[in-house]
């Protein structure tokens, strides 16, 4: 039976990890079996290399569901990257509080807060895609290579480009509704294993027959 508690699930492969086992930051949550592959950097450096501008003072969260596939170089860009645009200047004066004799506690005024990044289950994020703060990606969605995701992505929708736009739905609405009801990713490992062929088949009829 598969074991989501191990770091390197593929024998002899140190580029692919079950991501949750490399997470130390309390602001990041990753579900079982979600995988990250990195052939440029050490994949266990995900928090440093891929979750950017994510400062504890902001308390923003990255939540990733189960069974997601995250390709090399995908990045999550958090709120501290967004220099405030309400100010008459985008220069981050609050960061240089000593220099300008400002209150250290007001440092977060340097940027606009767009919110957490939520990635639901069974999402495939392509090579070097960038997900911006405040975005929610629905179950079963696909993010194309080098997309810049600025808006929420509905479940089972393929998006691509800069800014990312829907390319197509993966299935008919009826099938999507059924998949969202089934939530196979919440099944026990044993049940998933028993139904592997049905899951892989691309045929919802076979899932109904379980
Ligand atoms: C997004 C993706 C899944 C689309 O696959 P698809 O549905 O088979 O799409 P198609 O190749 O039929 O292309 C459909 C349209 O989307 C466009 N498109 C495809 N991928 C795109 C991308 N990454 N960015 C922008 N547009 C893209 C195509 O140009 C085409 O446009 P058109 O309708 O104007 O001609 C695929 O192109 C992709 O980016 N895969 C990610 C691969 C990857 O990063 N793997 C990492 C290892 S896990």
Throw out a few tags for this protein.
single chain, 210 residues, alpha/beta, UDP N-Acetylglucosamine Acyltransferase, domain 1, 2 domains, seven-stranded mixed beta sheet, four-stranded parallel beta sheet, 6 helices, 15 strands, 17% helix, 20% strand, globular, binds coenzyme A, antibiotic resistance, Virginiamycin A acetyltransferase, repeat, acyltransferase, Trimer_LpxA-like_sf
Can you characterise this structure?
This protein has 210 residues and is of the alpha/beta class. The chain folds into 2 domains: 16-170, Hexapeptide repeat proteins (UDP N-Acetylglucosamine Acyltransferase, domain 1), CATH 2.160.10; 172-209, no CATH class. The protein is built from 6 helices and 15 strands. The protein has helices at residues 46-49, 97-100, 173-182, 189-194, 196-201, 204-208, and strands at 16-18, 28-30, 35-37, 51-52, 62-64, 69-70, 75-77, 117-119, 124-125, 130-132, 136-137, 142-143, 148-149, 157-160, 165-169. Strands 1-3-6-9-12-14-15 form a 7-stranded mixed sheet, with no helix packed on it. The protein has a 4-stranded parallel sheet with strand order 2-5-8-11, with no helix packed on it. The chain has a 4-stranded parallel sheet with strand order 4-7-10-13. The longest helix is centred in the C-terminal third of the chain and has 10 residues, at 173-182. The protein starts with 15 loop residues before the first strand and ends with a helix. The relative contact order is 0.11. Bound molecules: coenzyme A. Coenzyme A is lined by residues 69, 71, 126-127, 142, 144-147, 158, 160-161, 167-168.
């Amino acid at each position: 039976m598969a074991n989501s508690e191990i770091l390197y699930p593929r024998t002899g492969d140190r580029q692919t990890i079950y991501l949750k086992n490399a997470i130390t930051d309390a602001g990041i949550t990753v579900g079982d079996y979600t995988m990250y592959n990195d052939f440029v950097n050490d994949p266990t450096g995900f928090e440093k290399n891929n979750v950017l501008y994510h400062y504890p003072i902001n308390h923003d969260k990255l939540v990733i569901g189960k069974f997601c596939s995250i390709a090399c170089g995908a990045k999550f860009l958090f709120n501290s990257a967004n220099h405030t645009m309400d100010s008459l200047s985008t220069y981050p004066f609050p960061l240089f509080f000593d220099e300008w004799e400002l209150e250290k506690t007001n440092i977060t005024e340097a940027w606009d807060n767009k919110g957490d990044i939520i990635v639901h289950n069974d999402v495939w994020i392509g090579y070097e895609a960038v997900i911006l703060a405040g975005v929610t990606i629905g179950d079963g969605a696909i993010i194309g290579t080098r997309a810049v995701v600025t808006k929420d992505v509905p479940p089972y929708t393929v998006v691509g480009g800069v800014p990312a736009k829907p390319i197509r739905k993966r299935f008919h609405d009826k099938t999507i509704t059924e998949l969202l009801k089934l939530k196979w990713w919440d099944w026990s490992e044993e049940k998933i294993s028993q139904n592997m062929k049905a899951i892989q088949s691309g045929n919802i009829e076979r899932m109904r027959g379980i």
